[in-house]
Structure to design on (439 residues):
């Protein structure tokens, strides 16, 4: 199918973009990469009256400042792999990017666009919740920053107001001794994930020090498995401890069942994936 | 809206409705029928063209967004090009529907990495679906293309 008609606005500055959003409110949609929005328009699941195209605005900067990596609104997902500064500062971002759709989608799709789309099992929302990402929003009313764990309020739903533009996202620069893993299961390479898990650990004298576990596919939005994290903090990374943590991690999840996988299967998957994710991160920290 | 598209080195200034997808404008307005539309939501890969050298789904961008960018379609590839020849020689196609997008995707791969290993090849073409060949001969075609490009 083809997209329904819309008015196309190409602002020449961020202020002009904000003015357009303020004028048109929820009639308008921002288009950056468009790799989720345009399919939805082609399928007529989305019918914005106005599209505000931010691709030509100077929003594609990548830099590290005050121990945080900042990615502007039009930084493409392919840059997470290609730009070595990103992999060096926040390794999980480049690692998870390989799971995002296909190469030809990543050349156009943006990091911030994926956050705004808020697919429950998407890679970048999960990574940003695990890493403590902060989304930067602007509108004609002012600017604000929202922590990733409060940004996602449900499936395909965020705290972005209709007149707001996400102008960038920041992530804490990773500690040198931290090791991360990203585990995803989908039916075919590049498909939407059935479930995904991200983990980060540091070791101190052979015991687990900092442990972070993020789970996607266990509910409407990605979450940290805090009970499992607490269980492991300070513990020896034994096989038994990881099994217990995995079981605690899936205690609280409420996966959805659909044509691709039942809720029970997703829960089972998540338990196995948490264990594997932890094993992989710990193996990295030990080597 | 007026937009100037630079396609295979030739500028075309045309009037298009904003809602028209690049794929449709290439086919219907410019008569470049080598760009094929399959699923129209970014999954099948048949409409892939190169935008500023990067593989891009022409069903997921609007023509009005392409002002000032360089677009390369299958019509811009010489039939004697090593990649096009390799698909023929290695039987990397049957019905041909997915082939233009494969040739462009592989051309991009070999420009970036002239001697890719099998895993790299499979990753690069993972976003293109072929319902005829089972991919074995497509992977072989990429190898043949890499070898013949190296030999030239």
């Amino acid at each position: 199918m083809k997209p329904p008609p819309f008015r196309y606005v190409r602002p020449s500055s961020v202020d002009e973009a904000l003015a357009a959003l303020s004028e048109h409110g929820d009639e308008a949609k921002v288009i950056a990469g468009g790799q989720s929005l345009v399919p939805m328009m082609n399928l007529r699941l989305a019918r914005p009256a106005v599209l505000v195209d931010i691709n030509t605005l100077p929003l594609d900067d990548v830099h590290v400042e005050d121990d945080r990596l900042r990615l502007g609104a039009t930084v493409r997902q392919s840059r997470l792999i290609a730009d070595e500064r990103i992999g060096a500062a926040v390794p999980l971002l480049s690692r998870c990017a390989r799971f995002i759709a296909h190469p030809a989608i990543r050349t156009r799709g943006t990091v911030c666009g994926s956050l705004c789309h808020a697919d429950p099992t998407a890679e970048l929302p999960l990574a940003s919740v695990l890493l403590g990402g902060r989304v930067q929003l602007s509108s004609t009313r002012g600017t604000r920053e929202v922590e990733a764990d409060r940004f996602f309020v449900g499936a395909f739903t965020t705290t972005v107001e209709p007149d707001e533009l996400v102008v960038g996202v920041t992530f804490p620069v990773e500690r040198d001794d931290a090791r991360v893993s990203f585990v995803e299961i989908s039916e075919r390479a590049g498909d939407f994930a059935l479930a995904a898990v991200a983990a980060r650990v540091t070791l101190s004298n052979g015991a687990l020090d900092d442990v972070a576990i993020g789970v996607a596919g266990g509910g409407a939005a990605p979450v940290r498995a805090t009970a499992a994290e607490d269980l492991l903090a300070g513990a020896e990374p034994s096989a038994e401890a990881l099994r217990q943590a995995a079981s605690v991690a899936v205690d609280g999840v409420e996966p959805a069942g659909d044509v691709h996988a039942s809720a029970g299967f997703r829960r089972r998957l998540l338990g196995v994936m948490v264990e594997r994710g932890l094993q992989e991160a710990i193996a990295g920290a030990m080597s | 809206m007026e937009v100037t598209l630079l396609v295979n080195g030739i500028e075309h200034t045309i009037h298009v409705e904003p809602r028209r997808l690049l794929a449709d404008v290439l086919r219907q307005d410019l008569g470049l029928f080598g760009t094929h539309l399959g699923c129209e939501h970014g999954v099948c890969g048949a409409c892939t063209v190169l935008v500023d050298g990067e593989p891009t789904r022409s069903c997921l961008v609007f023509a009005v967004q392409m002002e000032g960018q360089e677009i390369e379609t299958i019509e811009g590839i010489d039939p004697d090009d090593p990649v096009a020849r390799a698909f023929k020689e290695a039987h990397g196609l049957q019905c041909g529907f997915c082939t233009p997008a494969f040739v462009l995707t592989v051309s991009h791969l070999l420009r970036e990495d002239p001697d890719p290993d099998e895993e790299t090849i499979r990753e690069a073409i993972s976003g293109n679906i072929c319902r005829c060949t089972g991919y074995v001969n497509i992977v072989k075609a990429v190898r043949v293309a890499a070898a013949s490009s190296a030999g030239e």
